[in-house]
Amino acid sequence: MIRDIERQAMNPGEFKALGAGEIAYVKPMTSDDLSTLFPEAPKMASGLQLWVLLNADGTPIMLSDSKDVALANAAEHDLDTVALH
Description:
The chain has helices at about 10-15, 35, 65-75, and strands at about 25-30, 50-55, 60-65, 80-85. The chain has one domain (about 20-85). It starts with 11 loop residues before the first helix and ends with a strand. By secondary structure, it is α+β, with helices and mostly antiparallel strands.
């Protein structure tokens, strides 16, 4: 017997919290965009390639000049990682 499943929409807060503390995103960025996620970060040379580790809700966790370091930090905190492009 096939049962109809009622779809329920998630509100933005529920969707944003989905995966929080379990999933992290690794995203490339340049030092030129640094202030968008880290407004208090010191000024850096322009054009540096950086990697940011973000919680599932978009909260920045850490910043590195190495993707491997960002991935290792996620693993150290038992976070599954997903790449953002």
